[in-house]
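Structure in, sequence out. Go:
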């Protein structure tokens, strides 16, 4: 029995399985074929030429999307002392210490990013097993562990987004919403690809950006040409 409905089937009929489109054409087709009543995300899957089993080939990084992702970002900050006021003034939605650890331990997860000052990481370690698998654990390499929490919060609020490959060597990334214009989605896509290229491991051999596919949350995947984006 098919796991997709009739509307998905009709959309799929309009996308050839071996077809590779330019990014703007693919984005327009995604918008045209959207069949749900809510504003879907536009997602990108990238197959990378890496060995994900090797720690030195893990691909991770961040990018500030020119047009954001079309959602209000909630930022949580683990801090004490002067950093509390700095975080609040920068627009942090939740600021605290033991109280936040207690709430997270109890199952509360109503935030998109977590930031911490270095002196708070011992406390944050108590919820590392909860935050880590969700990609929410503050990390010095990503800049979310910092003494300058105001700057970090400000950057996150402007649309900074993080990425990391999965166990299969694929990066899954949301570019924005179907309601965005094609130009906006294309600019977000180009910014992301530039950041992804910059994150290429020195030990990765051969073709780095192997395959790319765009889709909406509920829609059909459409292959695009990675080389075209690299050249642009």
């Amino acid at each position: 029995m098919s796991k997709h409905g009739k509307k998905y089937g009709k959309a799929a009929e309009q996308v050839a399985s071996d077809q590779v489109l330019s990014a703007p054409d693919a984005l327009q087709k995604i918008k045209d074929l959207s069949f749900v009543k809510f504003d879907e995300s536009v997602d990108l899957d990238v197959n990378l030429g890496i060995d994900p089993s090797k720690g030195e080939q893990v691909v991770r990084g961040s990018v500030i999307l020119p047009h954001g992702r079309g959602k209000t970002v909630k930022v949580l900050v683990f801090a004490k002392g002067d950093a509390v006021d700095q975080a609040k003034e920068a627009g942090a939605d939740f600021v605290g210490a033991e109280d936040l650890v207690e709430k997270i331990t109890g199952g509360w997860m109503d935030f998109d990013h977590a930031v911490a000052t270095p002196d708070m990481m011992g406390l944050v370690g108590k919820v590392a097993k909860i935050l880590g698998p969700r990609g929410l654990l503050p990390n010095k390499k990503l800049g979310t562990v910092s003494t300058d929490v105001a700057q970090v919060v400000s950057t996150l609020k402007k649309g900074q987004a993080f990425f990391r490959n999965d166990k299969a060597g694929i990066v899954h990334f949301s570019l924005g919403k179907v309601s965005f214009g094609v130009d906006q989605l294309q600019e977000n896509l180009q910014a992301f690809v530039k950041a992804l290229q910059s994150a290429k491991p020195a030990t990765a051999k051969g073709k780095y950006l192997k395959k790319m596919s765009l889709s909406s949350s509920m829609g059909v995947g459409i292959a695009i040409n990675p080389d075209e984006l690299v050249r642009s």
